[in-house]
Design brief:
Blueprint: H1 2-9, E1 12-17, E2 21-26, E3 29-36, E4 39-42, E5 48-51, H2 53-56, E6 66-69, E7 72-73, E8 76-77, H3 80-95, E9 104-109, H4 115-127, E10 132-137, H5 138-145, E11 156-161, E12 166-172, E13 175-182, H6 186-201, E14 203-204, H7 207-217, E15 228-235, E16 241-247, H8 248-272, H9 275-284, E17 286-289, H10 298-306, E18 310-312, H11 319-329
Parallel strand pairs: 1-9, 9-10, 11-17, 17-18
Antiparallel strand pairs: 1-2, 2-3, 4-5, 4-6, 7-8, 11-12, 12-13, 14-15, 15-16
Helix pairs in contact: 3-4, 5-11, 6-7, 6-8, 8-10
């Protein structure tokens, strides 16, 4: 009777706990939460003032009494207490505070993190109110989310580019045969754009401005139509407001090193792949997921660099969450894919 009541009233939650964004879904909802992984705190008391989109708007704009924090860095927890508060807030927003049973959670994590970092994720979720926590690696979740035949004796190759990490994996028979994890992804690209603006244009811009510039003008390869944008910031020398015109070619140059590093990780993964699995990949290609997959021309860039077909998932921002939700709903079927 107790088990029946728990199944009826409890909420199972799938979470993509990302450096840039956190996404949540439940068994009966595809997507409930999709908000930035940012928390605004009172600088004196440490009390939480805002979480998510509202807190992100504070970045670079806060007075001294407010501190905007990104508690996740490079795909792992950088500030344990703030991460716990953030998870608790999102869980409460998704399913409410009043509940008979603690929710059971499936959380996706980078494949390259340490045991200590894995334990930090589990502990943070439990302290935030979870009753049980299962972990699944992001490339495996992305493959599930895209509907790849991960349980069959055929190779599926996935590249998931998130905010903090880029994860490459070759998957076959419910296991990852080859993995490469690189802590160069969306955030590193934003930083590269900001450095380029400072070094080339002599202008300092904020984190949010660098991200907007990457989204608006960013491309991995030259496009048919060259676009430009007006960017306002602070003059490096004078400290006064300054406006410059930035072209797509400038942003592409700023992103060059990051993209080369990601392409290098793909090539190293292919070099380490057994011949039979490599043959499958050259025949079937590679899936591109994560927010980084939205960078224009990235599939073409990687296809040229690795000499394989590259396809972008239909909704790359939610690929990992969809896979985590599939594992949550069918735990018995995908039991071998959990890593704890």
């Amino acid at each position: 009777m107790f088990g029946f009541l728990r199944r009826f009233f409890a909420h199972d939650i799938a979470m993509d706990l990302g450096t840039a964004n956190t996404l949540l879904s439940t068994a009966d909802e595809d997507l409930l939460i999709n908000e930035p992984s940012v928390v605004a705190l009172d600088a004196d008391s440490g009390a939480v003032l805002a979480v998510g989109a509202q807190a992100k708007a504070y970045l670079g704009r806060t007075p001294r009494k407010i501190r905007a924090v990104r508690p996740m860095k490079d795909g792992v927890i950088a500030d344990f207490d703030v991460t716990r508060e953030m998870i608790a807030y999102f869980v409460s927003k998704a399913i409410g505070r009043s509940r008979l049973f603690k929710p059971s959670m499936v959380i996706s994590i980078p494949s390259g993190i340490t045991q200590v970092e894995k334990k930090a994720v589990i502990d943070a979720a439990l302290l935030a109110g979870a009753g049980e926590v299962r972990l699944i690696e992001e490339p495996m979740a992305a493959a599930l989310g895209a509907g790849l035949p991960v349980q069959e004796a055929v190779a599926s190759m996935v590249l998931d580019i998130g905010g903090g990490t880029s994860e490459v994996a070759v998957i076959s028979l419910s296991a990852m045969s080859v993995t490469r994890s690189l802590r160069i992804a969306g955030d590193a690209m934003n930083d590269a754009v900001g450095r380029y603006m400072r070094d080339v244009f002599g202008i300092v811009i904020g984190e949010n401005s660098a991200e907007r510039l990457k989204i608006e003008l960013g491309a991995a390869v030259p496009l048919d139509e060259e676009r430009s944008a007006q960017v306002m910031g602070k003059d490096v020398v004078l400290g006064t407001p300054k406006t410059v015109t930035v072209k797509e070619a400038h942003v592409r140059e700023a992103l060059r090193d990051s993209l080369q590093a990601i392409a290098g990780a793909v090539l190293r993964a292919l070099e380490a792949t057994p011949p039979e699995l490599a043959a499958d990949i050259y025949e079937r290609g590679m899936l591109l997921a994560g927010g980084g997959g939205l960078l224009r021309g990235l599939d073409q860039y990687l296809s040229t660099a690795a000499r394989i077909k590259v396809a972008v998932d239909g909704d790359p921002l939610t690929t990992v969450l969809r896979g985590s939700a599939a594992a949550m709903r069918n735990r018995a079927l995908y039991e071998d894919m959990f890593i704890n």
